Fold these 3 entries.
Entry 1:
Amino acid sequence: MTAPDRIRIAEPADLPDWAKSASNLADPRLGASPVSASDEFFAPVTRMLDPAPAEFHPGRYDDHGKWMDGWETRRRRGPGHDHCIVRLAGRGTIRGFDIDTSHFTGNYAPAVSIEATCTEREEPGDDATWTEVLPLTALAGNRHHLLECLAGGEWTHLRVHIFPDGGIARLRVYGVFCSAIREAAADALVDLAALTNGARPVAWNDSHFGSVENLLLPGRGVDMGDGWETRRRREPGHDWCIVALAAPGEIERIEIDTAHFKGNFPDRCSVQAACIADGGTPASLVAQSMFWPVLLPESPLSADAEHAFASTVARIGPVTHVRLNIIPDGGVSRLRVWGRVAR
């Protein structure tokens, strides 16, 4: 393969603080999906939701023309504009968006606006009330556009308008899932660390090879890239991350899965926890967490395996945050924190 034909992968966005501790509500791995689109001639909406970075294949064409990694409509020759409707992975509040036009240069959408609605239906009906959450905004080619949400509220669906036509490589919707587990039965054991229940990562010391958010995804990891992995530590200490639980709860079981991590799994792990009444800021939580009570004492881990801890989990009362310590470094695929919601 000659140099001009090499596949190019989009650079990651430099996320602002409002996005760093949020979840992508439009992630299909969590259940998000396209509902409809006015046009998908060159590329379908499903590609716009792909959690992987956008790719550009210089010599790749299909029956409709140049293959593009995103959503792309045909050239509009009349009045109007294109739009699509996306069902979010769950009801949530939105902090902002990444409208990514990576690799779209002469074919990107010149402008975008977004509306949102909240409904129990799979597809909003004609009677749905739509609220503008991102006003009409100009776009540039081949770049990330990190834009804050205009309106508060809880939303389940988005209507994305592009003016008049063109392409968007990726749509990321940064927000927080609204927890439904606070109404769980008193004796129900629920995963308080699941993204879809409302948990979220709030701070970590390193995520060089894999995002902390991956720890909280449903199911087992599909490969080594679908987990949290830190760089090789060359100095004293160990790596860690802090997770805000979906609701205050009394923890009874912890599961740590090292799926696909074989030569790079942590040697040991431990978990600390605390009940933080005001939620705290990421900076304050990092400082406090070093002194939190031990929920799970230092325990050995093994390669590519599920580890369940129950008898060694300390009963320290209701907690709102946990700190996972991996010693000294390495990769973990999933973290499950099973407990009963504290009333």
Note: The chain has a mean pLDDT of 95.
Entry 2:
Amino acid sequence: MYEDQTFEVLLERMLDRVPEGMDKREGSILYDALSPAAAEMAQMYIELDVNNNLNFADTATGEYLERCIAWSGIQRRPASKAQLRGLFYNSSGELLDVPLGSRFSLELLNYKAVEKLSPGTYRLESETAGVDGNRYFGALLPVDYIPELARGEIAALLIPGDDVEDDEALRQRYFDSARRPATSGNKYHYMEWALKIVGVGGARVFPLWNGPKTVKVIIVDSEILPASELLVSKVQQYIDPLPGQGEGQAPVGAVVTVAPAAGKNISVSAKVTLAPGYVLQTVNDQFKGILENYRKQKAFAATYVSQSVIGALLLSTEGVVDYTELRLNGGAGNVLLNEAEVLMFGIVALEV
């Protein structure tokens, strides 16, 4: 808004107010006296422009974004802790119960047993909030002595932990809420209810999927992967624990079924021409990372996987000069996804 209010413009305007006949050249007393004031005013306009942007949801950041949208009731999501399945065994290889609250370590993180799921099987919670708790699988070491315990392991990620919601994600939730009002049990209301559960990364709603007054909600976790049974159960309990009875968020008479999205595995293969000095395995690993970033951005919003987009991602991989024979699931062309499916990449194999 104030981009044209530069030091030069301000100084020139100030000098224009000086009566004719007085020395206004650079180095003169008047010029040297007015220059610092012009510099300070130019800085003031810069700060005024920045502060102006902090008052609107489309340009505000950090605390100012939270304050801009506070009226809507939408708040920044705090970091959440990963929930994992832990298995524990005695020296005979039989499943062993451990005390609730027992603490275990793996690599640099600690986990606590918070719920017994079945004999010898527990829900563990990472003591560290954020995505770091999602990364480690394998043998657990008890922090304190537990009688008869021979070994323990993390077997599966139940509900991914998530970092503090960033500005862009918070801004997008606000815009979605404003553009698609959730009210009176409409379609968007079910989406909003599902997304309120920690660990849910996306939801799709299918009205009348099994006849009148039936609603199906398909969800993915915060890693944009098919939701676990535990996460599905949490969403079901929140929205409609007793079908049609109105005991949850859903109105009386609405029978809600919550289900995980189905993973659609897509394999990618191609022959590539490498730039001098690049190794195929390194390039293949980099391409996998690019595909994973693309998957997290598009997985639950995509209705098909474009071969040309995958080709563009391949060309953007460092070390790839060109490619031929690009195949998705062994064929040439796009791969369709239905509304209940979420994109997952399987084998990624590049050749030279």
Note: Residues 89 and 95 are 4 Å apart (CA to CA).
Entry 3:
Amino acid sequence: MASTRSRSRSALALAGLLGVAGVTHFAKPRPYDSIVPRVLPGEPRTWTYASGVAEIAVAAAVAVPRTRRLGGLLAAGLFAAVFPANVKMAIDYRDRGPRAKAIAWGRLPGQIPLIIWALRVRRSAA
């Protein structure tokens, strides 16, 4: 079984990833606006900001040992919830260069290890 220190490091790394991602929704919102599925009501910027707030809130929940178990579950749900945006990005990038396409299509299976990581953080929480 993993040590308490390594479990804590893993949780804090996940929290850091989520926190940085959340902040980028406010610092550079335009790329996020472009991948908001058009079937969602309202303006894409509203969804960009809402998802940024959600990522920051989930990061805080994962970072705090007392809320880590719930935070891990919420992180897994968040990673699943953003999957449609990643699908839209992959479709939108079909006419771009090879590097952009590789990044866009790579994000799709990339959600799986993120979900697994979040669930491991949840399971290992005290």
Note: The mean pLDDT is 94.
